[in-house]
Each structure stands twice: as structure tokens, then as C-alpha cells.
Amino acid sequence: MSAEAHPSVETHPGEARTNLVVMKFGGTSVEDAKAMLRTAAIVRGRRERGLSPVVVVSAMAKVTDQLLAAASAAGRGDKIGALAIAARLRNRHLETAAELLCGDLFSSIEKIIRHEFDALDDLLRGIAAVGELTPRTSDNVVSFGERISSQMVAAGFTQNGLNGVQVDARTCIVTDDHYGKAVPQEAAIEARLTQHVLPLINAGHTPVMGGFIGATEQGITTTLGRGGSDFTAALVGGGLNAGAIEIWTDVNGIMTTDPRICPDALRVKTISFEEAAELAYFGAKVLHPATILPAVQKSIPVWVLNSRNAANEGTKITAVAPPCASPFKSIAAKKRLTIIDVVASRMLMTHGYLKSVFDVFDRYHCAIDMVSTSEVSISLTVDSNERLPEICAELEKIADVKLEGHKALICMVGEDIRGQSGISGRLFSAIRHVNVRMISQGASEINMSFMIEESDVEEAVRSLHAEFFVDPDPTVFDTEARSLATRT
Ligand code: ASP
Ligand code: MG
User: Fold this and answer.
1) The pLDDT value given to residue 296
2) Residues flanking ion ligand 2, Cβ below 5 Å
């Protein structure tokens, strides 16, 4: 890794603790003993550079899903089914701990794992007896994943000379009581982190905290919503005024497009929060940028890094995009969309008409991806056909409705398209052989999106990539990797 890519050299307004780095490891980065050891090696690398890591971990891969399955089995009164899932989870954790740890460290973690799973069994029995699962109890069940993974990872760190210490996230991540998607209380979190975590760092420990979970002021367990560990990392980074936040996952960062479609796709070295937000929605499943808002608000850079390829420099997400000679940063494609044309049956778009159309989608919790309107018609796209029969039946009361399936959305993102003329001319002439069905330029002025046939996606993406990334700005894109990437 080159010196300038080193996260610790960042300077920030305010009193940033530039040496403090929050490192978040997702489920696949702690999925088994081998992954936990890889994680320990990555954290050691940061400590050897003189950084002080605070680590946030997810539950081991798939554990959250299985805990939810156990909770809902118990909620249906299926005690045997719920306890069977818990027993499998208990074994997986015990086996992983046995592989990861030895001696006293293993005995103490084994005891903790058994104790936690006993508590989980009791809880599941209680839910099954009542035959009802409340959101509050569900949060309690699902919290066991991160409670236990953080214990194991902390012990693994200690065994590997990193002085690990588990911090129960529920003592620091204070939330309201919206179970299932609790809202963090940032001032309280900052105070708790300062009280519980800072002294550990100063004493040379590596604190390890489970992501995703928190507690109310009264100490009742809550969760921040699925995928919430990134959010925890941002809250911890924000609360401690960290110098950087690292999201360790299993991809090399954000790419100029899907490398499976375009083998010469490049890693984007740096991208703005707004650009990342647009991409996350349209397919790049790296992280949900809303979850890193607490970091962005404090101008703390967030890095997306690959725990299976630690030498890779990843993608840096910053509040303000650096100047870039190329108009676009990335091209995302989203397939399996349906276009719905809604044509007013009477020749007028009366006041309230749009609202009544959107209300139908709202009632069925159906998210709309793109909208374009004319005098008498509205075209909308949706990514789920699940409730379409009911939605169409309702719309037909006020309009003529036509459906077209197998469509795809192409979304081109870049802050530098703002105010540039001629970009759309270049764009559409690059794909002049492709039939474009709907076009929209977002109000944010950082994306241009259009709908095409699903079968045209590969050709369109390749043509656009060739047009806009033929001579990429090396300060923003990893051009060195191009020769390597084309070989794979
Ligand atoms: N374990 C939680 C989930 O699977 C949180 C996370 O991993 O971010 O949703
Ligand atoms: Mg995740």
C-alpha cells in the first residue's frame, strides 16, 4: 500500500483522533476460524502502523438469518424447530471457538458460548410457550449473533497478541425503542463511548464490539435494522471522532461497473458519499451509504476494503468528491424491472391525479425506481412483481394500465456531469443501437438513468464503459489494475 493511501494521514476539521481507526468486519470476514484469523492479521497490520483500531463485527455469516428463523419458529409455537436451529448454531460456534482458541482462552469462551446459548434456549422456549413473537423479543433473539461473535473475535485477538477486549455494544449504542429499526441517540452514544471505549484504547487494548445491536436508555436490547453493522461502525467512528472508518468486506471496493459484464472494469479509488448513495440503490451491493451518514457528517473518510485481499487499497468514500477528469465514476445496471404505463382514462390530469396513482403503490409498499410523465400518461418502473396484480386492478379504476416486463435500468453516476454540456449526446450515441425506453436525470444532477431491454444490458454497459472509461483519470481510478483485470 502506498504511503498516501494510508488512512492515518488524513486530517480533519475539529478534533479528529487521526490515529484512531474503526474497522468493521462483516459476516463473511468472521464466518469461520480461518476468517477470524485473517481478520486478526489485518488488525495487527493497522496496529503495526501505529494506529489504534476499534473493531466492530457482524454475527458469523448467515447466523442472523438463522436466529430470525428460530425466533419465528418459536413464535408459531414450534419449540422443537426453534431449539433445533439454536442447537446447530451452538455447535457451529463451539466448533469455531475450538479451532480458533486454545487453553484458558478456549475454556473461558466456551463457558460464555454455553451460557449465551442456554439463555437463548430459555428465551425461545418462552416465546414458544406464549406463541407470540413481538418485535422487542425478536431483537433480543437476533442480538445473540453479534454478542457471541464479538466475544470470539476478541478472544482470537488476545490469542494473537492484540490484547482484545469485548465491549457489549448495548452499553454504548443507545437507541430509542423502535424495535427492529431503532434510532441511535448520537449524543448519548458519544458519551458512552468516551466513558467505556476510550480508556481501553488508551490502555493498549483492541476493543471489539458487535455491530447491529444496541439498547434503550433502560437497557432493553434493540437492533438498528438488517445490515446495521456498517451503521454501528459509523456511529462509533463519529462518536470517537476517528480518523478513518474501514468497512472490510469481500469485494475490492466500488468498481466502474460490474466486472462480470465488463472484464476491464476498474476500481474506483475515491468516490463521494452522494455518488456512492446513488450506486448502492442501483445495484452496487457494497454498503448502504445512509448507514455511514454519521461519518460523512463529521467528514470522516470511509474506506471499503477486501478482507480476502488486504493489500488492495479499496475505495475511499468522502463527503466531497475530488475533481475528476472523467464525467462518470461508475455505471450500474439493475435488471428484472417492469415498466407500468398509466394513461389517464379521461383526457385530463386533474389535480390530485398523480397522488392517487402513487397512493396505490404506497398502499402495497411497492417502491418505484423511476418515473416519467407526459400530459396524459405516467410511466413508472418497479422491481417487484409480487403485488402487481392488485396494484393494476386498483389503477385500472382510474386509468388504462399497460405492463412491460424484462426491462433494465442503467444508472450512470458522477458528480462531474453537473453543468457539462454534450454528455447526453455522447452517452446516447454510444448506445445508438439500443432501444431506450425511458430517460431521467435525477434532481441531484449526479446521475443519468434510462431504461432498456434486459437483453441489451451487456452490450449497453460495454459500449458505455468503452466510451467513458477509455482514458480514465488515474487519480480517481486504479488504472494499474487494468492489465491484470483483463487477464482474469
Ligand atoms: N448481522 C446483521 C445482519 O445480517 C447485521 C450486519 O451484519 O450488518 O443483518
Ligand atoms: Mg453487510
Assistant:
1) 84
2) 26, 227
